[in-house]
Design a protein that fits this description.
- Helix content is about 50%, strand content about 5%.
- With about 120 residues, it is mainly α.
- Strands 1-2 form a two-stranded antiparallel sheet.
- The chain is globular.
- The N and C termini lie far apart (about 30 Å).
């Protein structure tokens, strides 16, 4: 089981590196999607609450980076549920990091409900 988990994480990191390589220089410099790997379980509908590692990672990225990550083809490949993923900052108690009125893919983040509140 542990070997499968390690292989999965490795595959995710390789995929993320390919995605980053294809990004523009500015986007790659300002958005490190590798930091979101620990949030993958919490980004799926019905998934667990975000881990402490995920919450630490969310503190290090911008709202635009989170938005870019959840809308990527890679996110679709790993069954990321966009509304669920966008509640991660709130579930980590970090809603103050999201500017008032911030929208991602047409979803106003302030309207999303925390999955455990």
């Amino acid at each position: 089981m542990e070997a499968r988990k390690t292989a999965f994480i490795f595959g995710l990191l390789v995929s993320l590196s390919l995605l980053l390589a294809a990004s523009t220089a500015n986007a790659a410099a300002s958005c490190n999607l590798f930091q979101l790997a620990s949030c993958l379980p919490a980004s799926r509908k019905g998934g667990p609450l975000p881990s402490s590692a995920c919450c630490t990672s969310i503190q290090k990225i911008s709202p635009d980076c989170l938005c870019q990550g959840v809308q990527s083809g890679l996110a679709k490949m790993y069954n990321v549920d966009i509304p669920t993923a966008l509640t991660i900052p709130k579930n980590c108690g970090l809603q103050a990091l999201i500017p008032s009125g911030y929208s991602c893919g047409g979803t106003l983040l302030s309207t999303l409900q925390s999955s455990w509140w």
